[in-house]
Design a protein that fits this description.
By secondary structure, the protein is of the alpha/beta class. It is built from ten helices and eight strands. The protein has an eight-stranded mixed β-sheet, with helices on both faces. Helix 9 links the parallel strand 7 and strand 8. The chain is globular.
Length: 262
């Protein structure tokens, strides 16, 4: 358990497992109003064969806020700076929900740092979300903080945060990061690293969003053939009976991730 001084941020991180020759580390990026603790089951599996870096984003968990707007782009720069701090020039990255957006921005802004990318529950364009989700994200702000007191995210924040009284500030930051509209189509088509996309069939967006994302990467455009010559390096997994909130708990998550990263 350590802190790194990156981009003016006192960033909390943990390195689990040991560095082994030839083993590429994997970075796990949590969702909004969460912390790196959300990855406990997955990180313990991965740490058996490689270093695992778990991070608490700006204003989340054990990382305090700073006087800086929170954007997915700046959070991605924080992770790039952390990898430099750790002298890790190449990593696999898995991001869930907001962390999936940060992982995507990291691959777009710092492509040489990424060997393989796993995006769990995040779209390539904000318009892909269900309309009620779009409306809810735009309402995130200080006016919503009171209504969320006592919720599981609030309980986690109260346990971990250096200043639990900054709960309202966290909700404000999440609104800054998650409410802007975006469309990263052009940038995603230029990605060179292999990408695994994982969604629930009852996610914050219809399964078609995952298929469209997969197609942007070149996947699913033709039959793979008996010799698999038509199979791309990218993968798409739609987990059955799975919502956005149950993605990380799905028993199908680990079997989807491990072969891709192997």
């Amino acid at each position: 358990m350590s802190y790194a001084e990156v981009n003016g941020l006192h960033l909390y991180y943990e390195v689990q497992g040991e560095r082994q020759e030839g083993a590429v580390p994997v970075v796990l990026l949590h969702g909004s109003m969460q912390a790196g603790t959300v990855f406990s089951p997955l990180s313990s599996v991965l740490a058996g064969s490689r270093p695992v870096i778990v991070v608490d984003f700006q204003a989340h968990g054990r990382t305090s806020d700073i006087d800086r707007p929170m954007r997915l782009e700046t959070l991605a720069d924080d992770i790039a700076a952390l990898l430099a701090h750790l002298d890790m020039p190449l990593a696999d990255v898995l991001g869930y929900s907001m962390g999936g957006g940060v992982a995507l921005r990291l691959a777009i802004q710092h492509p040489r740092l990424i060997r393989k990318l796993v995006v769990v529950g995040f779209p390539f364009a904000s318009a892909g979300r269900h309309p009620d989700i779009q409306v809810g994200l735009k309402q995130l702000g200080p006016q919503m903080a009171g209504a969320l007191v006592g919720s599981p995210p609030h309980q986690l924040y109260s346990q971990l945060a250096p200043r639990p009284e900054d709960w309202t500030q966290l909700i404000t930051r999440v609104g800054e990061a998650m409410s802007p509209e975006f469309d990263w189509t052009a940038e995603i088509t230029a990605l060179e690293c292999p990408v695994l996309l994982i969604y629930g069939d009852a996610d914050m967006f219809p399964p078609q969003q995952g298929a469209d994302f997969f197609a942007l990467l070149g996947g699913g455009r033709r039959d793979g053939g008996w010799d698999t010559s038509g199979v791309t390096p990218h993968r798409l997994a739609i987990l059955p009976g799975t919502t956005h909130d149950t993605l990380l708990a799905s028993p199908l998550l680990v079997p989807s991730v491990l072969p891709f990263l192997a």
